[in-house]
Amino acid sequence: MIDSKGYRPNVGIILCNDEGRVFWAKRMGVNAWQFPQGGINPDEDPEAAMYRELWEETGLQKQHVQILGRTRYWLRYQLPERYIRKNSLPLCIGQKQIWYVLRLISADSNVRFDLCSKPEFDSWRWVDYWEPLKDVVYFKRKVYQKAMTELCVILTTNGIAINTSPTKIKKNLKKA
Length: 176
Hints:
Layout: E1 7-16, E2 22-27, E3 33-34, E4 37-39, H1 46-58, E5 65-70, E6 75-78, E7 94-104, E8 121-127, H2 132-135, H3 141-157, H4 166-175
Parallel strand pairs: 1-7
Antiparallel strand pairs: 1-4, 2-3, 2-8, 5-7, 6-7
């Protein structure tokens, strides 16, 4: 499902714990890290897609998490030219995403990568909230910054302490 401008609808998931640290996952077989994310099927709304992707990528279900909030609007990123599949129609030039911030309300041991036939991740860890900005692939960095900046307000409103200092954000962007 690609929109008329060439963007594939997608959801992104920032899963946090009560210490304000976030779930950071390593892609299967490579040294590339990201938040869980995935496409929205034609018959799904963003929230249903988020729960499906959460289960497929982490093994977590609705009862394991609490939705704290989501981005108000679609956030977009374009794929670098070399990643665009020119032979497929409709042509996909990037993704538009609704980002969710969730709180893990169950044990870490509920995270499992072996419940899906094609796991996307093979490892994960809790990291400081802003750390993903320096580690994510370059073409997703701005959309991560927009989502994380908007959603950090929701975390602090819900009593989850994170360093919301613009200096901390800039420091992590400079490391990238």
